Amino acid sequence: MKSQILKNTPLNLRRRTFLKGILATGATAMFAPHILHAASRGEKVRLACIGIGNRAAEDIKCFHETGMVNFVALCDTDMGAPHTQATLKLFPNVPRFQDFRQMFDKMGKDIDAVCVATPDFSHFPAAMLAMSLGKHVYCEKPMGHSFKQVELMMAAEKKYNVAAQMGNQGHSEANYFQFKAWTEAGILKNVRKITAYMNMPRRWHDSTKFTFSKIADYFPAEAIPGTLDWECWLATAQQHAYNHGYMNGEWRSWYDFGNGALGDWGAHIFDTAHEFLHLGLPTEVEPTLKGWNPFIFPQATTLAFRFPARGDKPACELTWYDGVKNLPPLPANLGSAVVDPNIPPPSNGKLDTKSRAPGKVIYGDGLTFKGGSHGATLQMLPSEKAKDIQANLPKVPKSPSNHYVNFLHACKGEEKTRSNFAVAGPLCQAMALGIVAQRVNAKLTFDPATKQITNHKVANELLAGVPPRKDWEQFYKL
Question: According to a count of CB atoms within 10 Å of the terminal CB, is the N or C end of the chain lower?
């Protein structure tokens, strides 16, 4: 079968030889000079896309609309699926690949940057190989599937001196510039409490697919579609038998493949609070779960992240709520939800912007703020102090470039990416700690200095993620 690649086929031998050459000779020397030269000429960025269906198709559309790219390669593990076929029809003359390793092997010198929009668990190997080759990387959120993967991705961004951007697109919109201006002006200060929530139903809440109390194993093996390279789809994950129940977003339900509601939406909801309040990494994460299962995410999750004092900033507790009935306590005068009209719809249904819009409440020094997700701006809740401040709010600059344009300008050395891995990495690592707390269903004590969980041996081991399969461990050495 096409997807069952034998270990010693010419293609697999070429993959291994290619990676060994990178490890031995130093990757940036192979391609980076050409990239810098292309950028200096002001040419369009030559973009390769790893993942081309579902959410990836939206990224491709947004990059195309900038008018700043030439698509030079399209890569997806299933080129015969309807969602990938739609993209291929739009770009019939662009070279296509099923394996990103083969794509770099054959076309590395023709690529300036990549968009990595694969399932959460497979961001890491594609992004690491790209950076090691001197390619700029736009990577969907969350950056990696484990704390360690994110750590290595942050180090690679710095080591290989590439432009990297995590795909939380609201980080280049109005909320970003407002939050920055209000913290710099001292309006948002002394924040000691943040409530963040996402109460829309998720895939693992669907009783037609899951009876969560009866999920006691992985799905049974099915025949692998002839169009799918299952080996490459699994990437660095543990070996699993193919089942259609893992595909097309259904992977989000499983710890082995997804990062849950927190990993999916946290980077859209409290990303600016995390950056501009300098939250960093928490010292404690305490879960309260309903419907816990060792394989799929809980039916309801409350996570209390406790961040220590930072300089003149007080300690802050950020509490995350997900689950259809796990509604957070909110101020009586909250009013209507704050909704960004540009939020892309979830892949499994419509976004409920009335009763269940995702959002946050930030409790500052004498002021309380409500906000939504993505680019939605904050609003002050009514109070006497709010009345006094309203007339003296600082001017908030307009965004000079959306998230995609910002990345492409950064590829040319003209701007700095706003959600670069140095910024997005600690956010993703904080969320990764929350997911570990979900998996072990226990309170965690974390040492940000040593980056170790100090009170739970199994949880501490989970920071590294699962050991990669043979021939995929090399990505941890790049």
Answer: N
pLDDT-based confidence at residue 207 (cuts at 50, 70, 90): confident
Token pair listed for 233: 């789809």
Domain interval for residue 290: 172-400+425-462
In a domain, 467, yes or no: no
Residue 414 lies in a domain: no
Which is it for strands 69-75 and 96-97: parallel, antiparallel or unpaired? parallel
Neighbours of 342 (CB within 10 A): 12
The predicted structure's pLDDT at residue 214: 77
Determine, yes or no, domain membership for 133: yes
pLDDT band of residue 274 (cuts 50, 70, 90) is: very high
269 lies in the same domain as 133: no
- Indicate whether 193 and 144 sit together in one domain: no
User: Does residue 57 sit in helix, strand or coil?
Assistant: helix
Tell me the pLDDT of the chain averaged across its residues.
91
**What is the mean pLDDT of the segment spanning 408-430?**
98
Q: Quote the CA–CA distance of 72 and 70 in Å, as a whole number.
A: 6
Residues 6+ apart with CB under 8 A from 187: 364, 367, 389, 393, 394
Beta bridge partner(s), residue 139: 116, 166
> At a CB cut-off of 8 Å and minimum separation 6, what does 129 contact?
19, 22, 100, 101, 104, 475, 478
3-class DSSP state for residue 79? coil
Domain-ending residue, one of 103, 134, 169: 169
Which two structure tokens, joined as six digits, stand for 477? 């050495």
pLDDT of residue 354: 63
Together in a domain, 124 and 194:
no
Residue 1 located in a structural domain: no
